[in-house]
Design brief:
By secondary structure, this protein is α/β, with parallel strands linked by helices. It has 15 helices and 19 strands. Helix content is 35%, strand content 25%. The structure holds cytidine-5'-triphosphate (CTP).
C-alpha cells in the first residue's frame, strides 16, 4: 500500500484545494491530510485565517479523498509524521517548489501543479473589503505599527494626524503615507483609527473617533480613569464598533498559550502572580521628564497588570504602591502590591532601576516561570515540588508583535473569531482604574 501525505490550512475551501487533494490521493492508495491549527498558522505569520479548525477539517473530509486527517501543530512536525505514519510520498502544491526537498531523505517528494487564479488569500480579500487605518500620533510606536501592519493582509494605512503639522509631514514623508491636516480628513478616508498620542489625550481622541463611527485600537495605557474607560466601551457597543486596547502581549501566541496553561489547572489553583518589567530610559526622554504623565508605572504597568488580572481576576480587594523617585518626583521604579480574595500579586516596573524582569505564576501544585522578555513570550517552564520534573513550552513571536493585535482587530471587524477577545472590556477598564488609583496616590490625578 502506498501512503501519501499532504498539508495545508485549507481556509475558505476552494477549487485549488479540491484538485490538490484529488491528485494527491491518486498518487497512492492511502491519503493522510495534515490541517494546520490556528496557533501554528499565527506562529508562521499566516494571520488572517477565517475558518476555524473544525470547519477546515470538515471541508477536507467532505471531499472524500482523505483517508485520515491529522493536525499540524508545530514546525518540524512533517518529518516525524512521515516516520510515524510510514509515509511513501510527501506532496504539496508547486507554490512550495524546492521548499520541501529536504524531505527526500525520508520519502519521495512530489510538487503538484498549483491551480491557477484561486487562493484563500484572494478569497479573503474579495469577501472582506480592505480596512483603511488612520493613525493619530507620530511617535516611535507608530513607526513600528506601520512596519508591522505590512504583515497583515486586508488592511491599508492611509495616513497620520498630529496637531503639530510639521511632525505629521515629516512622519508621513518617511513612511510614504498621507499627512492629514484635520481629524475630519482622517475620518473621511478610514474605517479604523489607531490612537497612539500622549496618554492623557487618549480619552478625547478615542471618544471622537467612536462618535465618527470608527473602530479604534488605542495604545496602552488606554485611559487614566475607570469611568472614562467604561464610557468609551459603552459608546463602542452602542455604535457596534470594535474597541481594542493595544497591549501587544495580550494578543501574541506565546502569551495566550501561557495563559491557557496557567488556567488549565496544571499548577493547581493560582495563588500568586509576580510580574516585573524594567527598561532603562534616557533621562531626557518624555517618559522621564513628563512630571504629570511620565514615569515607570504609567509606561510599563499595563504589561505587568495583564497576567495578574487575567489569572486572579478584576475584583482585587486592596492595592498599594511604593516608588523610588527621580527628578521632578517622577517614579523611576514602582512596586504595586495587590490583594485578591484568593491570592496576591506584585507588579514591578522600572525606567531608572534595572531588574531581572520575570513573570512568575505560583499555584497550589507548581509554578510557571517566564524570563524577560516575557512580554514578548517565546518560552516558559512549568515546575513542580519534584525539582527534576520540568515542562518546557515555546512559541514563536514574529517581528515586533503588533501584527497579532492588528490581525485580531481585523478578524473582529470581519466577524470572524467572535469569541476571541484576548483582552476583554472588563480587563481594560480594571487596568484604567488601577492607573487612576496610582495617579491619585501620587497627587497627579
Ligand atoms: N493549492 C493549490 N492550488 C491553489 C491553492 C492551493 O494547489 N490555487 C495547494 C497548496 O499548494 C497546498 C494546498 O493546496 O498544497 C493547501 O494550500 P493552502 O495554503 O491551504 O491554500 P492557499 O489558497 O494557497 O492559501 P493562502 O492564500 O492563504 O496561502
Amino acid at each position: 500500500m502506498t501512503k501519501v501525505i499532504t498539508y495545508g490550512t485549507f481556509d475558505l475551501f476552494h477549487e485549488g484545494h479540491y484538485r490538490l487533494l484529488q491528485r494527491a490521493k491518486a498518487l497512492g492508495d492511502y491519503l493522510i491530510v495534515g490541517v494546520t491549527t490556528e496557533n501554528y498558522d499565527k506562529a508562521r505569520g499566516k494571520l488572517n485565517v477565517v475558518d476555524d479548525l473544525m470547519t477546515r477539517i470538515e471541508n477536507v473530509k467532505k471531499t472524500g479523498f482523505a483517508d485520515e486527517i491529522i493536525i499540524e501543530e508545530t514546525i518540524g512536525q512533517k518529518v516525524s509524521d512521515v516516520q510515524k505514519y510510514k509515509v511513501d510520498i510527501f506532496t504539496v502544491g508547486s507554490d512550495w517548489l524546492g521548499n520541501f526537498d529536504y524531505m527526500a531523505d525520508y520519502c519521495k517528494v512530489v510538487y503538484l501543479e498549483r491551480t491557477k487564479d484561486v487562493s484563500s488569500t484572494m478569497l479573503r480579500n474579495r469577501n472582506f473589503k480592505i480596512q483603511r487605518i488612520g493613525i493619530i500620533g507620530t511617535g516611535r510606536i507608530t513607526g513600528r505599527f506601520l512596519m508591522e501592519a505590512k504583515s497583515v493582509s486586508g488592511i491599508n494605512i492611509q495616513g497620520a494626524y498630529n496637531p503639530h503639522k510639521k511632525s505629521t509631514e515629516q512622519f508621513a514623508g518617511r513612511y510614504e503615507i498621507n499627512a492629514f491636516e484635520t481629524l475630519e480628513e482622517l475620518y473621511e478616508k478610514t474605517e479604523i483609527v489607531y490612537v497612539a498620542s500622549p496618554h492623557e489625550t487618549h480619552y478625547e481622541y478615542v471618544k471622537d473617533a467612536l462618535e465618527h463611527d470608527k473602530h479604534v485600537i488605542c495604545e496602552k495605557p488606554f485611559v487614566l480613569k475607570k469611568e472614562q474607560a467604561a464610557e468609551l466601551f459603552d459608546i463602542a457597543k452602542q455604535r457596534n464598533k470594535i474597541l481594542f486596547e493595544g497591549i501587544k502581549t495580550a494578543y501574541c501566541p506565546g502569551f495566550t498559550k501561557l495563559m491557557d496553561v496557567a488556567r488549565s489547572g496544571l499548577v493547581g489553583n493560582i495563588r500568586y502572580v509576580d510580574a516585573c518589567f524594567t527598561k532603562l530610559e534616557n533621562t531626557e526622554s518624555r517618559e522621564l521628564t513628563d512630571t504629570k504623565y511620565g514615569g515607570s508605572f504609567l509606561e510599563l504597568g499595563s504589561y505587568c497588570l495583564l497576567p495578574v488580572i487575567k489569572l486572579l481576576g478584576c475584583e482585587y480587594e486592596d492595592i498599594s504602591f511604593d516608588s523610588i523617585y527621580g527628578a521632578g518626583h517622577i517614579d523611576l521604579f514602582t512596586k504595586a502590591s495587590l490583594k485578591f480574595p484568593k491570592g496576591l500579586a506584585t507588579v514591578t516596573c522600572g525606567l531608572g532601576v534595572k531588574s531581572e524582569g520575570r513573570l512568575l505564576i505560583a499555584g497550589t501544585e507548581g509554578y510557571i516561570v517566564a524570563e524577560a522578555p516575557w512580554w514578548k513570550t517565546t518560552y516558559f517552564e512549568v515546575h513542580y515540588e519534584d525539582a527534576s520534573k520540568i515542562e518546557k513550552y515555546s512559541e514563536r513571536f514574529l517581528g515586533d508583535g503588533l501584527r497579532y493585535e492588528i490581525s485580531d482587530m481585523l478578524n473582529q471587524i470581519n466577524g470572524n473569531h467572535k469569541s476571541e477577545f484576548k483582552l476583554t472590556r472588563t480587563e481594560s477598564i480594571t487596568i484604567s482604574g488601577i492607573m487612576e488609583a496610582f495617579l491619585k496616590k501620587e497627587n497627579r490625578g
